[in-house]
Amino acid sequence: MHTHPSLLASLLLCAAVSFGSFACEKEKVQVKSQRSTKTVELPPKPPLEPPKYTKQHADGVWTVEGLLRNNKKAMGNTVKVRGSIVKLVKCPPPAPHTEEEIAKFKALHDKWKKLVKLGKRINKIPPDEPILKPKKQARTCNPRPQAVLQDTPPSDRFKLTVAGSMYSPLAVFTNGQVVTIEGVFDMVTPDGHYMNQDGLMHLKDVPQEDDDKVQEAPGEAAPAAGKKAKK
What we know:
- The protein is an alpha/beta fold.
- It has four helices and six strands, in the order αβααβαββββ.
- It has helices at about 5-30, 65-70, 70-75, 100-120; strands at about 60-65, 80-90, 145-150, 160-165, 180-190, 195-200.
- It has a five-stranded mixed β-barrel.
- The radius of gyration is 41 Å and the shape is elongated.
């Protein structure tokens, strides 16, 4: 049977319209999920004002938090700060004398006794009696001596590194001790071992006996010939 072109076009148009209507109807029947009716609680707004803190103690000494919050003002200056020691690193005590060292001393002492007897016979004053002195504490070591200070709770958010040698006041610190110290506030220690952009303290050495025989840690530059070690 021969179909007229205009009739065929009409049938195709109707089919397209019917298919589009079916697709629209199918799209309309899609069910969307219902919205939750639960109440959402947002966190409270953070305070806009900075938290209050104690900048300095009654005697004018910095608190740890006060010093670190005002680090730009204090940087490069000698300042005083008070805090509690929560971490402490020290050099180990010097090793005891070896058997060889003790034997050498005994031989030297026996020689001195003979000189004393000889001096009595010839009426001559003998040399001073030799003494076996305890070994001197090393000035520094690896890792370098340090203490960490913080304010007493609840104001203990800030921590301050305090560096120094075993010839500085750091040598007598104990864990948990509250100390008032005076030192240079800077970003790096003179030996470059400790560094902190917020700032740290460095304690100077106190006078020692036999300063020209200071024992340096391995890796540190020895003092130039004829010069004493820097303090």
